[in-house]
Write a structure and sequence with these properties.
This protein has 72 residues and is an all-alpha fold. 51% of the residues lie in helices and 0% in strands. 8% of the residues are buried.
């Protein structure tokens, strides 16, 4: 049995390098949004950017989740 290490979208299609980068940026913003040591202006803008990137990654079937727990 062979296990694929190529990242895939929710439909099982391999991710392009651009999609991998987009998903990486989304994950980085999620990590930043979960922090509580950033100034209010940074928190607000991180959440705004995360909401926009969430839409792109959701439309591309790269992830399926809600961000309510992070205040987005």
């Amino acid at each position: 049995m062979t296990t694929s290490t190529t990242p895939e979208d929710l439909l099982g299609q391999p991710l392009s390098p651009a999609e991998q980068e987009l998903l990486g940026a989304y994950e980085t913003l999620k990590q930043l949004a979960s922090r509580d040591d950033l100034p209010p202006c940074a928190n607000s803008n991180i959440r705004k950017a995360l909401a926009a990137l969430w839409q792109a990654t959701n439309d591309l079937n790269l992830q399926y989740e809600q961000l309510y727990d992070l205040g987005v």
